[in-house]
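TA notes, week 10

Several of you asked for a full example with nothing omitted. So below is the full record: structure tokens for the whole chain, then the designed sequence directly under it. When grading your own attempts, check the secondary structure regions first.
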């Protein structure tokens, strides 16, 4: 935290004086002083082409140096006793209002709730409007945006297999993401000899541009043949599912896609199913409608089931998300839904391939929902417990559709729907179907 005394000058735009305390060695002091002056001068020159002059004085006492940088652009100066006490740094992407950046001052802020910029690392300035002794002024405060958060491992090696005599590509085995860096560095220590069948222990490290890192141990298996995935999951009858989760004030339903082919919704309803959420389409570079969407919507509605839709996407830009939401609105053509439109993003295995950070994908979800809302529909977030806890911010508290395949979920956030099993069986559907519980007391819209 530091205290800054301002010797402002009044103008139609702004005037600026900063006086900050910098602690360090003499060389540190010089470099930080010069950086501060350069940053402050640049910020003012960016706003207007007003002529500026600069004066600097330095006083050294013990290990503390006070640097005063004055930029005068008008005749009327702010009294020397005006001061601001500020925090030294703010975390990248944090939503910080001026009232939190400025911890103490002897002026009255005119925009205390104004959010400061935190989308870029380094020295940043923010305009501050305030009154002092009945007069109004505007100037800039400088602060440092930092990243102190380590990357997150999304896939620590679910299938750590390499075929003998094939190249070892660690990035194809693990998945990771950073809160800011869109391309953190992946390294490992240890040896993997793909010319010989065997097990190889390595330590994986992911490091972002701010030198934050995460590491974990992993065993790589070099094999003659990659094993096929095993499915040992027990199947559960829908009626038994309802009996097991015999909660108060809930509804029971399913979600379907082309994997379920020709669903007999009359038979489904007879077994106690009350709603169905169906895949409308998916996106892998192009928007494609699910082969059974039209049939599912027509037959489920005719059977009297409540209906909703979801869209599976690999969008990595806000424009793509908006385009997909607009396409969904076009297909619905004014149809009323009983459930929000669910946003389904699940490409976590090698997430780094999409060139995004945590903030980016959260913004993509928000853009998707915003486009739906412009057209009278509501968005909903579908995700598993792991990614809800470690990835999604859901800053606007949109409804959550939780995927967690356990007997009793310990997810601590609020959810409107719980997808509790992917291995349901019921008459009228060939093969497996996802089974869901709607918590009726949690609003959807």
């Amino acid at each position: 935290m530091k205290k800054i005394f301002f010797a402002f000058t009044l103008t139609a735009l702004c005037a600026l004086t900063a006086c900050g305390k910098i602690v360090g060695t003499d060389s540190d002091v010089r470099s930080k002083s010069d950086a501060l002056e350069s940053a402050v001068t640049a910020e003012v020159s960016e706003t207007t082409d007003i002529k500026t002059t600069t004066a600097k004085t330095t006083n050294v006492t013990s290990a503390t140096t006070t640097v005063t940088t004055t930029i005068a652009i008008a005749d009327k100066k702010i009294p020397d006793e005006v001061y601001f006490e500020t925090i030294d740094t703010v975390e990248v992407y944090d939503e910080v209002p001026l009232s939190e950046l400025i911890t103490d001052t002897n002026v009255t802020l005119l925009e205390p709730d104004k959010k400061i910029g935190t989308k870029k690392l380094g020295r940043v300035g923010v305009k501050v409007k305030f009154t002092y002794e009945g007069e109004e002024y505007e100037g800039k405060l400088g602060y440092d945006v930092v990243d102190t958060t380590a990357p997150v491992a999304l896939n620590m090696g679910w299938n750590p297999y390499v075929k003998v005599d094939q190249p070892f590509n660690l990035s194809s085995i693990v998945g990771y993401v950073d809160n800011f860096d869109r391309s953190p560095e992946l390294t490992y220590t240890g040896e993997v000899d793909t010319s010989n069948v065997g097990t190889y222990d390595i330590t994986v490290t992911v490091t972002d541009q701010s030198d934050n890192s995460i590491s974990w141990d992993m065993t790589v298996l070099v094999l003659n043949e990659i094993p096929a995935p095993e499915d040992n999951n027990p199947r559960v009858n829908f009626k038994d599912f309802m009996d097991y989760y015999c909660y108060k004030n809930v509804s029971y339903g399913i979600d379907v896609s082309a994997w379920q082919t020709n669903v007999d919704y009359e038979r489904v309803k007879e077994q106690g199913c009350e709603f169905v959420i169906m895949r409308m389409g998916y996106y892998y570079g192009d928007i494609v409608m699910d082969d059974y969407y039209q049939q599912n919507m027509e037959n489920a509605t005719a059977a009297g089931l409540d209906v909703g839709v979801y869209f599976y996407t690999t969008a990595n830009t806000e424009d793509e998300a908006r385009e997909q939401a607009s396409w969904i609105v076009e297909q619905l053509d004014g149809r009323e839904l009983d459930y929000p439109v669910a946003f389904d993003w699940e490409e976590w295995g090698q997430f780094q391939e999409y060139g995004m950070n945590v903030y980016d994908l959260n913004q993509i979800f928000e853009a998707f929902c915003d486009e739906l809302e412009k057209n009278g529909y509501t968005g909903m977030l579908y995700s598993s417990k792991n990614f809800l806890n470690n990835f999604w911010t859901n800053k606007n508290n949109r409804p959550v559709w939780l995927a967690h395949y356990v007997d009793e979920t310990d997810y601590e956030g609020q959810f409107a729907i719980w997808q509790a099993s992917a291995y349901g069986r019921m008459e009228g559907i060939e093969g497996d179907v996802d089974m869901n519980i709607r918590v009726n007391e949690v609003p959807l819209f």
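Residues 159 and 173 are 7 Å apart (CA to CA). Use that as a sanity check on your answer.
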